[in-house]
Design a protein that fits this description.
GO terms for molecular function: glutaminyl-peptide cyclotransferase activity. InterPro entries: QCT, Quino_amine_DH_bsu, WD40/YVTN_repeat-like_dom_sf. This is Glutamine cyclotransferase. By secondary structure, the chain is mostly beta strands. The chain has two domains: about 80 residues, no CATH class; about 260 residues, Hemopexin-like domain (Hemopexin), CATH 2.110.10.10. The chain is built from five helices and 27 strands. Strands 23, 24, 25, 26 and 27 form a five-stranded antiparallel sheet that branches. A four-stranded antiparallel sheet has the order 3-22-21-20, with no helix packed on it. A hairpin with a 5-residue loop joins strand 14 and strand 15.
Length: about 400
């Protein structure tokens, strides 16, 4: 006879029991209505996928012509703050952790907007129906407003003085002046700027990070900025004083550090961070620094000509929860929806191999679901609740 619906959600037990049976249990919920051969088969696929899932690692870099952080050409190995930058830094660690908890989760492309290919994008921030973009390079750095429906640049600041290299931006509420503001940091000058939403500069400040550089910045919606500097650390600043109050190292579940954290976005209590020279965006717990999810956006970059730069722009549309994603000198801005959800009326397992996802679905009868190619949803007929 049918038993009550039991939702299996392994949290603290996932590392003990779940990892022995199926690491995917931490993410997937399973409705156990009856034990039959189909469910046993599904469990097999879940276990099999955890051992065979292909994860696109840090060797899947855009390299275009190997554009480095400052816009110059980069070799496969480059010195960075006394540490050799290797394109294989996190390869084995991500492989190991992918067998445990991490998922290269699929996403749906909602729309594609044109983007200025001359724009060396360093940060995106969506506020009040406008997409703000911060750009870099000496003598070319600026802040501008973009129409998120057409991709058209509607307003821009003058180019910054040549000594500045623009980096990450974010919008926030200035509690002191009770006004919305846009903040922008710079790369090596250890200075930042504050603007009104109409791009009028109203303040300037100095800052310090672990590498003395500024890369990405976001705001938690309360009173804290989260800042990256190309290291493995997330720095937390008091929004009122712009002084660091704490920092946390970002780690995979096995303790391996994730270096070169770049553009940041704060979404639903988590920090999304892209990794320089990688097509991955990491979902990070800001309290512990632990990587909770990994989103693989290789398929977006593969739609572009090979000479375009790395992914380096993330912003969330406030009402829809969709993400705007672009990169340095990309011809497009992609609006995407992450399919990080569970359909209560449907249980299925995603089998990942060779970057193709097949969905095993059961409702009242056995149906077939559309194929998901390279992590991008081709047709979402069986995942309607994920995209609703």
């Amino acid at each position: 006879s049918q038993s009550d619906t039991i939702t299996v959600q392994l949290d603290t037990l996932s590392s003990r029991i779940g990892s022995l049976i199926c690491p995917d249990f931490e993410y997937y919920a399973i409705q156990i209505l009856e034990l039959n051969m189909l469910k046993i088969l599904a469990l097999y696929f879940c276990f099999y996928s955890s051992l065979n899932r292909h994860f696109v690692k840090c060797d899947s870099f855009v390299n275009d012509g190997n554009i480095s952080h400052d816009g110059s050409k980069a070799t496969e190995k480059e010195s960075y703050h006394g540490r050799e930058l290797s394109l294989n830094d996190n390869r084995s660690s991500i492989e190991t952790n992918d067998r445990r908890n991490l998922q290269d989760l699929p996403y749906e492309i909602i729309s594609v907007l044109p983007h200025d290919e001359k724009s060396f994008t360093q940060g995106l921030s969506y506020y009040n129906g406008v997409l703000y973009e911060g750009t870099g390079l000496h003598g070319q750095s600026r802040l501008r407003k973009i129409d998120p429906t057409t991709g058209e640049v509607v307003k821009s600041t003058p180019t910054m003085p040549k000594k500045y290299f623009g980096e990450g931006i974010t919008h926030y509420f200035d509690r002191k002046n009770r006004r919305k503001r846009i903040i922008q940091i710079t790369w090596k000058s250890q200075e930042g700027f504050i603007y009104t939403p109409n791009l009028r500069q109203v303040d300037k400040f100095s800052f310090v990070t672990s590498t003395t550089e500024g890369w990405g910045i976001t705001h938690d919606g309360n009173a804290t900025f989260v800042v990256s500097d190309g290291s493995e650390f997330l720095h937390f600043w008091d929004a009122a004083t712009l002084q660091e109050v704490r920092r946390v190292p970002v780690r995979l579940p096995d303790g391996t550090a994730i270096y070169y954290l770049n553009e940041l976005e704060y979404v639903n209590g988590r920090v999304l961070a892209n990794q320089w020279y990688s097509d991955n965006i990491y979902n990070i717990d800001p309290r512990s620094g632990e990587v909770m999810r990994v989103y693989d956006f290789t398929s977006l970059r593969e739609q572009l000509p090979s000479y375009h730069g790395v992914l380096n722009g993330i912003s969330i549309a406030e009402k829809s929860g969709e993400l705007f994603i672009t990169g340095k000198k990309w011809p497009n801005i992609f609006r995407v929806k992450l399919l990080d959800c569970w359909d209560d009326e449907t249980w299925y397992f995603r089998k990942w191999r060779n970057r193709t996802c097949k969905v095993f679905l059961k409702k009242k009868k056995k149906n077939k679901c559309e194929k998901m190619s390279r992590g991008v949803l081709v047709k979402d007929s069986c995942c309607q609740s994920c995209s609703s």
